[in-house]
Structure formats: C-alpha cells, structure tokens
Amino acid sequence: MNGVDFCAVDVETANYDRATICQIGVVTVQKGRIVRTWSSLVNPRSDFVFTHIHGIDASMVRTSPTLPELWKELCGSLPHDVMVSHTSFDRWALIRAAERDNLRHMPVTWLDSVQVAKRAWPNRYRRRWNLPLIADDLGIEFTHHDALEDAKACARIVIQASQATGFTIADWAKSP
Q1: Could you give the strand order of the β-sheet that contains 82-85, starting from the edge strand earlier in sequence?
Q2: What pTM value is reported for the model?
C-alpha cells in the first residue's frame, strides 16, 4: 500500500509521572507492512508503582540505558516523519521525558490511532476506544502492556483502517 509509511510507538511508565518511561517499542511500517521493530527497557531513574500493570520492576532496568542514552538512536532510526500512538499518552510521555532531560523533541508529526479508527469506522467506536477492545474487534492478537506488542497493535489498526478506506497517511493526518 503506497502512502502507508509511518512509525508506531508505545511506552510503559514506572509511575504516575509520564516522564518515567521504563520501556519503549517502535514499529516501522512501509507500504502498509511492518518491516522493522525495536524495543528497549529504559532505566527511568525513578520509583516503580505500575509493576502490577506491565511486570517491569526496578531490578529489571537497573543496567538498562536511560532515555537520554537512547534518544539519539531512537530519533535517528525513524525513517518516517509520522509517528502514530494509541491515544496521546505516549506522545505526551515522550514530550515530558524529553523536557525533563533537556532533549530535543522528536522531529515527527503525531497521529492518534484512536482517531484513525473512529474515522475509518465511524459507527463502531463511539465509546470503545481502548487498544484491547479495538484490536480484538479487528482480530489483532497481542500482549497488552508490553510496549512493542502495543506498538504493533497500534500499527496494525492504522494498516487495517487504510486498507478499509484507501486512505494514505497523508489523508489520515488531515484534520477530519
């Protein structure tokens, strides 16, 4: 599918502060196909509160790189200028983490896969917008609250929406 080139991202955080990213997953999509995946645990240099959600604890990230140590690799490995996340949570987590560590913002245009799903199937997702519900409805299997798995599911939602509508990423990026 020409014109369906983008990256999808998901993060997990250690606690209520969105800047405490402890895992990041990125999926690269070219011509409507997942062609590359990348994931890393991240040392958030913070206390863990959400271990019960994603299973990541302080001992697992003790020797992992910090986000500033990963930032150049992360930003330099983005082959597309559109980044998709499911809701704005991941976008704001990355913005908040960049601000905390005085890093330059990611040079991307952000797209929300919830909004894509709502536009592709306007009568299906009036109240059901969370990732597991939309993924299940579309037949997408994944392990929720693993950053790479969530990023893959997010990417697959946009791919399926593009197949269903014929829209390109540029079409999705236009306001409704």
Answers
A1: 33-41, 21-30, 6-13, 82-85, 109-112
A2: 0.95
